[in-house]
Specification:
It contains 3 helices and 4 strands, in the order E-H-E-E-H-E-H. With 146 residues, it is of the alpha+beta class. It has 2 domains: 103 residues, Alpha-Beta Plaits; 41 residues.
């Protein structure tokens, strides 16, 4: 390996922003993140908006947040700088960077990630359908008793 060769590692990040954050504030955050990643000789692979969702546990007094998921490649120092700038931003409620396996390309990771999300959503739909069927059966049983 040459000394001047750039070592880039794959990462993913999930960011939870304040539900009142404007579209402009969201764009500014991710433009700033993209410029930081670029300054560390990296590139953003994907950025997905998951939308406004309920939080399982409130953060401060917030019960909702806007979720974002992104994957990128950069030098290891990029994550520390990204986290520093996100801590300063009042609109960022939470964030989590995860280093990905270097043996798997980011496109393959995203394919398997999306497949896992689809399978999870399908299981959730099946679970809800079963619960509705049980409620309907219980309701009809109560109606027949009366």
């Amino acid at each position: 390996m040459e000394k001047n060769e750039v070592i880039r590692k794959p990462y993913e990040v999930v960011v939870l922003m304040h539900p009142d954050a404007t579209l402009q504030e969201q764009k500014e955050l991710f433009q700033k993140n993209k410029s930081i990643i670029s300054s560390f000789k990296g590139s953003v692979n994907s950025l997905e908006t998951w939308g406004k969702r309920n939080l399982s546990n409130p953060i401060g007094k917030q019960r909702k947040a806007i979720y974002f998921h992104s994957t990128f490649e950069a030098q290891p120092g990029a994550v520390a700088e990204l986290e520093r700038t996100m801590r300063i931003n009042d609109k960022v409620l939470r964030f989590m960077h995860t280093k990905l396996d270097t043996r798997v390309s980011l496109t393959k990771f995203m394919e398997s990630f999306k497949k896992g999300l689809q399978e999870s959503a399908q299981r959730e739909r099946e679970k809800e359908a079963k619960a509705q069927a049980r409620r309907a059966a219980a309701a009809s049983a109560r109606a027949s008793e009366e």
